[in-house]
Design a protein that fits this description.
The chain is α+β, with helices and mostly antiparallel strands. It has one domain. Helix content is about 20%, strand content about 30%. A 6-stranded antiparallel sheet has the order 1-5-6-7-9-8. Strands 2-3-4-10 form a 4-stranded antiparallel sheet, with helices on one face. α1 packs antiparallel against α3. The longest helix has 18 residues. It is globular.
């Protein structure tokens, strides 16, 4: 597994390695196997779509949170995004990306990942804590630090289509970090 310096901050490499190892092991054990901009109004959700025909990525843009994210193309049409206040670990805001299961599966949508936004001072306090597992820093801009949080396990019953699709989406992000690129705006 390799990480681009533009994606991950050097001080996060140890945390990312642990997060990716644990995340990959958990997800492997659990399952079998448009428009350019999306801006949800406060409290509303947006569905992702591919930018341009034949795009190799799925692009999400939030003017409110001042960030853009490129996801693997496999995320197309399979998630919603919502911005909200968040105080986890001292963060200020978060963009929650929720799995959008096939309606025939009759399962409740669950969180795929979160991008939490911290002040630099808030992130430094959190990052200084031994064993910090709330999030991994992926980018910064001015006084804002953007950090990635992943679920600790697949929330769906193993062997079901929902578990397999959820695993596929999270593993697509974990296995090749060049497909997840957060760009502060």
């Amino acid at each position: 597994m390799r990480f681009s310096r533009s994606v991950l901050h050097p001080s996060s490499r140890r945390s990312v390695g642990v997060l990716l190892f644990v995340g990959t092991a958990l997800f492997a054990a659990c399952g079998d196997g448009g428009q350019a901009k999306h801006e949800p109004p406060p409290g509303a959700a947006a569905t992702g779509s591919v930018v341009g025909e034949g795009a190799a990525f799925e692009h999400f843009e939030s003017a409110q949170e001042k960030l853009g994210i490129d996801f693997p193309a496999s995320w197309k049409g399979a998630y919603t995004a919502a911005s909200r206040a968040d105080t986890t670990g001292g963060s200020l805001r978060a963009v929650e990306f929720t799995f959008k299961p096939d309606p025939s599966w009759k399962v409740v949508p669950q969180t795929l990942l979160m991008v939490r936004i911290f002040t630099k001072a808030g992130w430094d306090r959190l990052d200084a804590q031994p064993g910090q597992t709330v999030a991994v820093k992926i980018a910064s801009r001015g006084d804002a630090v953007f950090a990635l949080s992943l679920p600790s396990r697949n929330p769906y019953q193993g062997g079901t289509p929902a578990a397999a699709r959820f695993d596929q989406m999270v593993l697509a992000v974990l296995q090749d970090s060049t497909r997840l690129r957060l760009t502060p705006r």
